[in-house]
C-alpha cells in the first residue's frame, strides 16, 4: 500500500506540465495510443455496419479540416468543449464529479442572453463583458446548488448535477416557448429575441462563423492553469482532491473549497452557453446544444484534466462534431457513432493508464525482490 | 366509488412506472453492497431498451427480447468489471463512459436497424396479466393484480434479494466484501470473483428495468428514452438506505410524483408542462438532500481493491 501513494500523490500534486520530460512523453504516448485503439474500434464497428470505414473517416476528416470553412467549423465546435472540459477537470481536481455541464451551459446562456437583449446603451466591449459575467454567475450558481447540497446535506453531487441538467433544459424551453424570454408574438416560438449587436462576439476569421469565444476559451485554459498550479487556493484544491480527509486534517477548509470550486466549475460551463449565444446563435433557443456539456467529460478525461490535454481533447471531439455531419451524409454513418467512439476513447485511456500503473508496480516489486535476494 | 376507481388506477399506474426504477435500484443495491459504485446504470438501461425491442422484433416474442436485454446487461457488466475490478480504474469515470456508450450505441444501432422512418413497427410487448380470483377483487384487483408479468417479477424480487443479502452465507460474503474487502480476503472470500458476480448479475437486473421501459411501459424504442431513470435509481438506493425494501418504497414514492404530474397534465391545468416534467427530477434532488445523511453507505463503496 505504501508504495502506491507516492506515484498517485505525484500525479495529483505535481504541475500538469510535468517537469520531467520522460513523464510527459509517456503520458502522451499512452493517450495517443489509446486514441488510436479507440479509432480502430470505431472503424471496426463501422465496418460491421457494412460501410467502408475508410470512406466514413475520410468524409469525417474532410468535413473537419479540408477547407477554410471546414476548419472554422471545427473551431466553432471545439470552443464550447474548451469550457465544458475545463469545468469537468476543475471539479475533478477537487475530487468532485460534475456531470452537470449541460445544464450549467443552458443557465449561462439564459443569463447572458437576458443581459444581451435587455441592457442597452452600452459600448460593445462593456456589453460583451457584462454578458460574460452574467453567464458565468448563472452557470456558477446553478452548479453551486450541487456544491451546497453536498456540503450541508451530504447529497451526492453526481446525482444532483445530472438531475439539474434536465431541470435546466426544461426551464430554458419554458422560457422561450411561453415564458418571459419568448420573442414577441407574431414570430417563431421556441426562441428569444435576438441579442443586441453590441453584445455579439466579433468574427475571428473573416468570412466564416468562427468567433472570439475561442480566444475566451484559451484565456480560461490559462486561468485554469494559473489557479490550480500557481495559487495557494489551487494547491489546497488539489490536495483536497487527492485526499479530502488529509486536507481537512492539515487545516484546509475543504467545505469552503467545495463551494468555491463548484461555483467556478459551473461558471466556466456557463461560458460555453455564453459563447454559443453571443458568438453563434445570436439568441436563445430551446435545445440549442447537441450535447457539448456531456462531451466535456470525454474532453477532460482524455486530456487527463490538464490544460494542454483539454485543448487536444476539445480539438479531437470538435473535429468529430464538425465532420460528423458530412460522415452521416456521405457514408450514411449515424453521427451518434461519435458518442460511441468517445466512450471507446475514455475506456482506452483509462485502461492503458491503469495497465501502465500496474506494470510499474510490478517492475518495482521485481526490483525490490532482486535487491532482497 | 368513482373516487376509489380513480385511486386504484392511480396505484396501478404508479406500480407500473415504478418497476424500471425498482429493478435498476435492486441491481444497484447488489453492486453497492459489494462495494461497487456504478453510475453507468443509465447507459446499461439504454442499451437494454434497444436490445429488448430488437429481440422482440426479430423473434416475435417479448420474452426473447427480455433475454436479449439481459445478455446485453451482462456484457456491459462484464466490461465494467474488467475495467474497475481487474484494472482498478476509477468507477465513476468508467460509469460515465458506460453512459456515453449506451447513449451512442443505442442511437447508432437503432438508426441502422430501423432507419429514421416515422412508422413504428409493431412488436410483441408485455400484456397485463389478470391474476385469477385476486384480480377480480374490487379495488385491490385493479390496483395490484392486473399488472404486466414483469411488474410481479420485480416486486417478488424484493424479498428475494433481501433474503439473499441478509440471510444467506453468500450474501454475507458479498456484504463483507463491500464493507471490508481486506478482511474478507483474509477469510478466504474471493473479492474479485464476488465483485464480478455482483456487477454482472446486478447489470442484468438493471437491464431488465430498461427492457420493461421499451416493451412494457411503451411499445417501442426511442432515443434517450431512459431519461435519467438510471440516475434517479442511484438516488432511490440512497433514499432506501441500501436495502431492497427501502428501494421499493423509494421507487414508489419517486414515481408517485410523475403520476401526479401526468394527472395534472391530463387535466390541462394552468401550469406549463415543462414544470410538471421537471417535477420528478426536482423531487429526487429534494429527497436526496433530505435523506442523504441518514443513509450509511457500505464502507468501501467506490474504492478499488488491491490484493497484497
Structural account:
The complex is a heterodimer of chains A (373) and B (308). With 373 residues, chain A is mainly α. Chain A is built from 14 helices and no strands. Chain A is globular, with a radius of gyration of 22 Å. Chain A has a single domain (52-357), classed as Orthogonal Bundle (ABC transporter involved in vitamin B12 uptake, BtuC). In chain A, helix 2 packs across helix 3 (53-65) and helix 5 packs antiparallel against helix 6. Chain B is globular and about 65 Å long. Chain B has helices spanning 2-33, 41-59, 62-86, 91-114, 140-144, 149-167, 169-179, 181-186, 191-217, 229-239, 244-266, 273-291. Chain B has one domain (2-117, 127-294): Orthogonal Bundle (ABC transporter involved in vitamin B12 uptake, BtuC). Chain B contains twelve helices and no strands. The N and C termini of chain B lie far apart (67 Å). Chain B has 308 residues and is mostly helical. Chains A and B meet through helix 7, helix 12 and helix 14 of A and helix 4, helix 10 and helix 12 of B.
Number of distinct beta strands of chain A:
0
Instruction: Spell the H/E element sequence of chain B.
Output: HHHHHHHHHHHH
The 3D shape of chain B can be described as: globular
Assembly state of the chains shown: heterodimer
Largest β sheet strand count, sense and barrel closure of chain A: none
Amino acid at each position: 500500500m505504501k508504495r502506491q501513494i507516492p506515484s498517485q500523490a505525484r500525479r495529483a500534486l505535481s504541475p500538469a506540465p510535468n517537469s520531467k520530460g520522460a513523464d510527459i512523453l509517456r503520458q502522451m504516448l499512452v493517450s495517443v495510443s489509446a486514441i488510436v485503439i479507440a479509432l480502430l474500434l470505431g472503424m471496426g464497428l463501422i465496418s460491421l455496419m457494412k460501410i467502408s470505414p475508410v470512406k466514413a473517416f475520410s468524409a469525417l476528416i474532410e468535413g473537419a479540416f479540408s477547407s477554410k470553412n471546414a476548419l472554422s467549423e471545427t473551431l466553432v465546435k471545439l470552443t464550447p468543449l474548451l469550457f465544458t472540459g475545463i469545468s469537468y477537470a476543475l471539479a475533478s481536481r477537487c475530487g468532485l464529479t460534475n456531470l452537470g455541464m449541460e445544464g450549467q451551459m443552458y443557465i449561462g446562456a439564459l443569463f447572458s442572453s437576458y443581459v444581451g437583449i435587455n441592457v442597452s446603451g452600452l459600448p460593445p466591449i462593456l456589453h460583451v463583458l457584462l454578458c460574460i459575467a452574467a453567464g458565468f454567475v448563472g452557470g456558477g450558481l446553478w452548479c453551486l446548488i450541487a456544491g451546497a447540497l453536498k456540503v450541508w446535506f451530504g447529497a451526492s453531487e453526481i446525482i444532483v448535477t445530472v438531475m439539474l441538467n434536465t431541470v435546466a433544459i426544461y426551464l430554458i424551453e419554458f422560457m422561450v416557448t411561453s415564458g418571459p424570454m419568448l420573442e414577441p408574438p407574431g414570430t417563431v416560438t421556441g426562441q428569444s429575441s435576438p441579442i443586441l449587436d453590441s453584445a455579439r462576439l466579433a468574427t475571428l476569421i473573416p468570412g466564416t462563423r468562427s468567433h472570439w469565444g475561442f480566444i475566451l476559451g484559451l484565456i480560461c485554459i490559462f486561468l485554469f492553469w494559473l489557479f490550480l498550479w500557481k495559487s495557494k487556493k489551487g494547491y489546497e484544491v488539489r490536495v483536497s482532491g487527492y485526499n479530502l480527509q488529509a486536507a481537512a486534517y492539515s487545516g484546509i477548509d475543504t467545505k469552503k473549497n467545495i463551494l468555491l470550486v463548484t461555483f467556478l466549475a459551473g461558471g466556466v460551463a456557463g461560458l460555453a452557453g455564453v459563447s454559443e449565444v453571443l458568438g453563434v446563435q445570436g439568441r436563445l433557443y430551446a435545445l440549442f446544444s447537441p450535447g457539448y456539456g456531456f462531451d466535456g467529460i470525454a474532453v477532460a478525461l482524455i486530456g487527463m484534466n490538464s490544460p494542454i490535454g483539454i485543448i487536444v481533447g476539445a480539438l479531437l471531439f470538435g473535429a468529430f462534431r464538425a465532420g460528423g455531419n458530412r460522415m452521416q451524409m456521405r457514408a450514411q454513418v449515424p453521427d451518434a457513432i461519435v458518442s460511441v467512439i468517445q466512450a471507446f476513447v475514455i475506456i482506452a485511456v483509462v485502461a492503458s493508464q491503469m495497465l501502465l500503473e500496474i506494470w510499474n508496480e510490478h517492475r518495482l516489486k521485481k526490483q525490490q525482490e532482486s535487491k532482497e535476494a | 366509488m368513482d373516487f376509489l376507481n380513480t385511486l386504484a388506477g392511480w396505484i396501478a399506474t404508479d406500480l407500473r412506472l415504478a418497476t424500471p426504477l425498482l429493478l435498476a435500484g435492486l441491481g444497484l443495491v447488489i453492486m453497492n453492497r459489494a462495494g461497487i459504485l456504478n453510475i453507468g446504470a443509465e447507459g446499461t438501461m439504454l442499451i437494454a431498451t434497444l436490445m429488448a425491442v430488437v429481440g422482440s422484433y426479430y423473434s416475435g416474442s417479448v420474452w426473447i427480447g427480455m433475454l436479449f436485454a439481459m445478455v446485453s446487461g451482462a456484457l456491459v457488466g462484464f466490461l465494467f468489471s474488467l475495467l474497475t475490478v481487474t484494472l482498478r480504474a476509477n468507477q465513476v469515470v468508467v460509469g460515465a463512459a458506460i453512459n456515453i456508450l449506451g447513449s451512442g450505441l443505442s442511437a447508432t444501432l437503432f438508426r441502422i436497424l430501423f432507419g429514421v422512418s416515422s412508422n413504428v413497427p409493431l412488436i410483441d410487448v408485455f400484456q397485463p396479466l389478470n391474476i385469477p380470483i385476486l384480480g377480480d377483487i374490487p379495488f385491490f384487483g385493479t390496483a395490484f393484480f392486473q399488472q404486466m408479468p414483469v411488474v410481479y417479477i420485480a416486486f417478488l424480487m424484493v424479498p428475494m434479494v433481501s433474503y439473499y443479502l441478509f440471510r444467506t452465507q453468500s450474501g454475507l460474503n458479498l456484504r463483507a466484501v463491500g464493507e471490508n474487502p481486506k478482511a474478507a480476503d483474509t477469510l478466504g472470500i474471493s473479492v474479485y470473483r464476488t465483485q464480478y458476480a455482483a456487477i454482472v448479475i446486478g447489470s442484468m437486473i438493471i437491464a431488465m428495468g430498461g427492457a420493461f421501459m421499451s416493451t412494457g411501459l411503451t411499445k417501442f424504442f426511442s432515443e434517450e428514452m431512459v431519461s435519467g431513470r438510471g440516475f434517479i435509481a442511484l438516488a432511490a438506493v440512497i433514499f432506501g438506505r441500501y436495502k431492497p425494501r427501502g428501494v421499493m418504497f423509494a421507487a414508489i414514492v419517486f414515481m408517485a410524483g410523475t403520476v401526479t404530474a401526468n394527472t395534472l397534465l391530463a387535466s390541462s391545468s394552468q401550469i406549463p408542462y415543462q414544470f410538471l416534467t421537471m417535477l420528478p427530477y426536482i423531487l429526487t434532488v429534494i429527497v436526496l438532500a433530505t435523506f442523504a445523511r441518514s443513509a450509511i453507505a457500505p464502507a468501501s463503496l467506490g474504492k478499488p481493491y488491491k490484493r497484497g
